[in-house]
Amino acid sequence: MIRKILAILGFVILGVASSATAAETADAMLRKAAANINGSAGLTASFTLDYGSQKVSGTMKAAGKKFALQTSSASTWYDGKSMWTYNAKNAETTLMNPTPQEVAEANPLSIVNSYSANFTAAFAKAQTKGSKTIILTPKSKHLGYKSVHVTIPDGSVYPSKLVIVPSSGQKVTVSITQVKNGQKLPETTFVYPKSKYPKVEIVDLR
Questions:
Q1: Neighbouring residues of 75: CB distance < 8 A, sequence distance ≥ 6
Q2: What global pTM score does this model have?
Q3: How far apart are CA 55 and CA 131, in angstroms?
């Protein structure tokens, strides 16, 4: 579940990178955002996940098709070909050359670029003054979500909060504390830092 949550998080942080106007539909916002993302040199975001009694903080970095997601419990690096996933609990890292579907499950950019095939976007009927809320409704039950609620402050290009409602299990609230766009990220950002985990076993599934 944490992997899917991170993917949705990436979709929202990277995907809703455009503020709404009165004449703009939710779908138009997301289409414009996808174009903005593809032209971005790099982006870094900090976030906190709250679900049940658990609270996890993390960061996400992305540039083009490459991305890196890090939390205290799990981290993923994808350099466009190979993907490493580190599990802190098991002290183990898996290495694989993922299929397009596997990349889509973990890569925020893949979700952004294909959101129209998987979600229906609409503004919530009830809006809070000073912000806009978009509701993403999955087109298929197989995605594992009932809905995702995104809150974007007026005058901002990034969301400040989202609530993920899974088909089963605990509701997840994500608070986004900082977003930096237009960064030039080095290639090593998206490659597993083996020297940082010298005693961690790497399971090669390629």
A1: 68, 69, 85, 86, 88
A2: 0.71
A3: 25
